[in-house]
């Protein structure tokens, strides 16, 4: 098992899959000569040539749709869309076509393709470059949406996504590319549709994905160290299908939950998780499910405003305190 | 018949086809195919008004010569993508008329098993990879299919049909640009019936001679009389061969008319009587009928027998559709994903997410 960055795990996995399967090829803006805006595809043009590492025009709808068509004929394209914000230009091809072709034509053609795209707010990029719109895709039957938070999951889920016969939106995060972790050697494909309990606990469940799954772990460690509160962390990993059973099992154990998300609160992924908890574990809940999400504004450029709008570890600690206080359990947690 | 210089196509309502034996046989065959589209569509309109067919329903009435000419130019190995006005293409490409009608009826024996309906006819066996309901949505897909052919060094060609209104969307320009950049074996066909729903080409397109748009992408293009089946076929063959042999894309514009409204429910009140009359005067089915009789290729009785035969095919198609059962509700979740996946929600609207009281 090697320790490597999330970026390296993605790069190595793409390379390994291209070596394994000649039908796997890459398309996207600046992925070849420029080596990718975030350098995930560095060196691959030199190794595999322009047929398999295809630089595209700045035309997200066109090249994403071309990948769908290529997948219909049995190739396995992996598209890089520079940021999820630009994927909105390709929304028709992703939602109306990639997601629908298998069903709308009665199962005659599947669309085995992957759309890799980083999300993530912050870094003073202002409103159109700092938004997490994975919900649009997670909302859509026919698509699969995964959001790995660790280098190991990045590898396992990218392998699974490339080998899957359906279109998969593979959500990365700018803040995660340099994070490091142990990555198993060998051909270890994960399973789309499975969440992970990344930290066991008994007092409260924190549900999160992508960058916020890291925040959840940080907060859980801090709560344990400072206050003796035992938080369990569920990392969703897959936004569609959503692994409701794992969430419910955890909440049945802890009886309290806080949901963390980088997107907007109203109608967001946290809303779906909270509603699912209400449906599946209502009798076990000791307190209302709280959600920590981005402020509901187009994200501003000014640092002071941006910091206020983005959810932080402190916001999560506050939400945990409020939840446990509501039922007088903070002292229990601090036994 | 083919224009490259920019003048409008002169359409004639009565043609005099050459009378070689081979030509006669071909012309009769094309007449039979055009009549199949005509009678099938007339019967479809009737079934729609009887509420046997739901949803939207866009007919090829008036475009039969274009449909048949285009289908005569591509080979079995080639791939076809169309827009939502796709019934005629499906029939002439070789889909079973009964299964096409069953799809319109939303039955389980439909070509798309009742999941697609009128706008989404699809049959891998004849390589018709879909009618698509979003204007221009099929263009990037078709380019991707051509990319896959090229990736595998294949010799298939992709034909991508669209309406005139499509030439104003972004995907049209993005796709034509990629097609030239990447040397894709694809033929784009703009079926110019002069109307995008109720908006004329002149009202919607800064350059109403649509084939000229290809010049911005260094792409060969031509405009042809879409009411002349031979002219369409020959022009399309040039395009297909160029795509196959030289791996170069091509844009072909066919100019015809729409005999009815945009869809079955559209009375086309936006058109004047004169406009409708002008389209009727160029009816390609009637014109070919007269040309065949005038040229002594066939007499009126022989052509009436062809019509009777086509009527029998359409009648049988309707009977097949009527008898085909509705899809089982138990199959509702069969086609969401090709790869099975854990935790995939398979609930009907009233089903709880979790068993009550569990």
Automatic annotation (TrEMBL), chain A:
Keywords: Oxidoreductase, Pyruvate, Thiamine pyrophosphate. Its cofactor is thiamine diphosphate. One of its GO terms (molecular function) is magnesium ion binding. It is an enzyme of class 1 (oxidoreductase). Its EC number is 1.2.4.1. NCBIfam families: PRK09212.1. This is Pyruvate dehydrogenase E1 component beta subunit. It comes from Jiangella mangrovi. Residues 4-179 form the Transketolase-like pyrimidine-binding domain. It comes from the Bacteria. It holds the Pfam family Transketolase_C.
Automatic annotation (TrEMBL), chain B:
One of its GO terms (biological process) is pyruvate decarboxylation to acetyl-CoA. Its EC number is 1.2.4.1. One of its GO terms (molecular function) is magnesium ion binding. It is an enzyme of class 1 (oxidoreductase). Keywords: Oxidoreductase, Pyruvate, Thiamine pyrophosphate. Residues 1-22 are annotated as: Disordered. The pyruvate dehydrogenase complex catalyzes the overall conversion of pyruvate to acetyl-CoA and CO(2). This is Pyruvate dehydrogenase E1 component subunit alpha. It comes from Jiangella mangrovi.
